[in-house]
Amino acid sequence: MLRPKATRHIFFIRHGESVHHVTGMTGGWTDTPLTDAGARQIKGTAGALQRLASGWPIITSDLQRTAQSAAIIGRAIGSEPVAEPMLREINNGMATGLTQVEADASARPAPAEFDSHWAAYDDAESYAALSTRMAMALDALGHERLIVVGHGVSGTTLLQTWLGLDPLPLALRLGPASLSELRVTEWNERQLVQLNVIDGPSTLGLASSRLRIQTAGNGGSGGRVVSSSSNSLAACRRSTRRGRRPACRAIP
User: Which of 22, 60, 144, 240 is deepest in the core (most CB within 10 A)?
Assistant: First the structure.
């Protein structure tokens, strides 16, 4: 779990639109590059980071869509990204490289109730295993402040892990090229300052959500919510699509 005196300020950026988003391929470890639209999306976010985090270290998943996104950001803020495989998207096992239709045909039936140890496909990663991996990734970051470029499902899990939450039937909506901001306050509270800011540099930097966790003891995984706002989380519902994480709709 995160050491409170280590990383205290993170901008988490989800990669821009990827080829698998528009071709019907699975995500996960299917390794596809950004689309032209995805590159433009990330350039908008990178422009905002010039103001918010110029010169900050960048750590990125090593898959193409994140590495390309990190490179665009790095050129904008004057930093060289470092690849970290632990930040990869959830491992989708035998579904890697398949179309979603092909993968759905071989998907395991989803349990009636949320089970963090369930995996959608053979050789795939469960949410419990992903949570452990994200905790290890956070613990190894090693910078007081940095930019992390990652994915949707593993990014959601990283945010939950930062807040000290066990794997839950909850998903935070992270759109392509979105920015979320995490910070440890002067009172040693873990704070979700911004979530899923996607409107570009005109709005980045304005607090769109707040949720704080009071860390327990010396910064262990336990914690309690001490404040939140109605627009800080998504109203989550279980997806009816096979093998998908519970889906979310933003609260107005």
Answer: 60
